[in-house]
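quick one before i forget lol
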Amino acid sequence: MNRERSPRRPVYEIGHPVVLAHRGGMDEHPEHTRPAFEAMVGLGVRAMETDVRHTVDGVPVLAHDETLSRRFGDPRNVSLVAWEELSQMRDVDGCAPMRLRELLEDFPEFVTNIDAKTDEVVQPLLRDVRESEATRRVCLTAFSARRVATMARVTQDKAMMGLGMADVARLLAWAHLPGKTAALASVGRYAGSRRAIQVPLTFRGVPVVTAKFLDAVHSAGHVVHVWTVNDPAEMHRLLDLGVDGLVTDVPTVAAEVWAERGLPLA
């Protein structure tokens, strides 16, 4: 069965803003769970922001935190628990944990934005993406620029790539320099590849999402997504500014903003 998106189109596009449900919409549904993703299907949101870690036996699972404390009441690191044991646990909302493979295979309509939280998860993560035939419907990213570079090299840029925070800092500086287009086009050491530049409103106290920044990034062919935005007035302001997507904990609020503006969710 071919699970790739059809018809083939870029995962993210300039001028086609998307709602990215943060961990499946964590203020509205249990984060990183099947009920959250099923709710997004019903809402019509088609981009999921996820975090992935590995179990002790190398299974990529949806998990933001290093430990299981907050969601499962277990102080151990995710990486110290086998999947067989973890699969029997239930979180504070009574939901089962999910493997990355389940998300990719059971919800092929989603664009899955995957934040690789550790170096060790990269290889099994990429294996799951490849075996689930999901390369063309994921965006791979990480806070580590080196980790992003590794994923881009292994996938040969066939997957949409994000940008590590060290590269974001350089990009922010380059956006204000002459000759910025050439510098931005080669950001992340992979010239010509379109990137999803996913940034906070500020970085180390410096405003990031400005008209000048957006103009520079767009001129190089990259899209800009902003995290984490939950206020509808701020959503409108950023969309007016020209951002290409918003990562949000409240996707139903974002869906209302999109409807008010006549924007499609998918």
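fyi Residues 52 and 64 are 7 Å apart (CA to CA).
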